[in-house]
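Minutes, project check-in

Agenda point 3 was the complex the collaborators sent over. CS summarized: two entities, 500 residues total, and the question is how they sit relative to each other. Sequences were read into the notes so everyone works from the same version.
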Amino acid sequence: MPELQGLYDAVVNGDQKAAVRLTKEGLDAGVEPMELLSSYMIPAMDEVGRRFECEDYFVPELLLAARAMKGAMELIRPLLTASGAQPAGRVAIGTVKGDLHDIGKNLVASMLEGGGFDVLDLGADVAPEKFVDAVENKKVDLICLSALLTVTMPSMRTTIEALERAGVRDKVKVIVGGAPVTEQFAKDIRADGYGENANSAVALARKLVMAARAA
Amino acid sequence: MSLADWLSSGPLLTDGAWGTELQSRGLDPGACPDAWNLAEPACVESVARAYRQAGSRIILTNTFRSNRISLAGYGVADRTVELNRAGVAISRAAGDGLVFASIGPSGKMLMTGEVTEDDLFAAFSEQAKALAEAGADALLLETMTDLEEAKIALRAALPCGLPVVVSFVFDSGKNKDRTMMGSTPEQIAKAITAEGASVVGANCGVGIEAFLPVCRRLRASTHLPVWIKANAGLPVSRDGRIVYDTTPEQFASYAGALIEAGANFLGGCCGTTPEFIRALARVMP
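CS then shared the predicted structure for the full assembly.
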């Protein structure tokens, strides 16, 4: 039996090589993929989030942990899918129309992947219709909108309005984030939530998707 | 004239935001503001002139995104050198005073391998050289979020022989006193001083009140002059429009405390206008 606690440590320390190796060893030894995920990897990401919240970790550590998680998930996901297990949720993410900035969006996307979400990255400067299409044709549970510029914040509103006009707004949760975005702005444009940083965005995504599935 | 000469009569007033000023002159949101250096130079010059008239002793250039990597996103990478040269010429033409040439971050992340150190060095070298050859008085590496990228940009800028200001965004962590990558003002000031910059500073980020402790901590960690350019708070949405709540007078009420905390250069970032600079000019010593 391999030392599985090491998998937890590898994710917390952002050691992708060790995370992949230990996942492989665990699977070879007959440990259930779900067991690896729920007993070691997800608790590890929770610990990473906790360290981020208390300022022990910053963006570099988050990125490394997400990368380790992603490496391990690549081995585990096909097995989970084959066994019929559902991902944490399906997310479409993008920087809104007119805005080319993608660092924040990419960071949230990797954290969501690390958190077990199936992530559809639509890129930067994404037209509202593409988000509508993701809801209509890609069955996403959640949309994440990013904006770095004050002048492109209104594109978040037009994206939500486009979802409303297409009659799919109630099929999906929408969260927003980015340097100039605030909780109040999220409320004003009828988003379902505001993620202050990549870590809180993942926690919020989990909460919203779970609530929607329970409803 | 050296940096010490410029500062010999006390703190210097810099300028305010350019992007929003260009938008009020018809630039489409989401369009590349720097492209107007060639397409609408008269409009860009009117922004520069508005800041000169408001009392800016130093104005920047409309070249924040004019590095090859960022311009590629707008499909105008082949105009890199021209846009930078035009930016300096426009600011120079707007009246007497110093012109500090703006160099922003690449918008790509080193850590995730989106861009390499060599790419960054080449892009920043090209931009710095074009700005220096066009006659800028100093180079300003601003709105930096990653110390590693800023160090590369600084190494690329120093061979031009001009004073180099390096200014970071402190908007992360509970107290909004860390860069996105987690660096403290102390770490930034020490590293940037050791790398040979002439001035270290903070810009953008959150409201001006958060700049006081950051300014104090930069001051305590370096012998270099300190550059401060705060936002007019965080934007709020009102009647479907995005506006900044801080008034020019509220903004300027922090000037005295910032200078006391060690600021040698004072101006505004996002959300500030020539009115903010006028308000600062009224209270600056």
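Noted in discussion: Residues 59-82 of chain A form the longest helix (24 residues).
Follow-up: revisit at the next meeting once the mutant set is ready.
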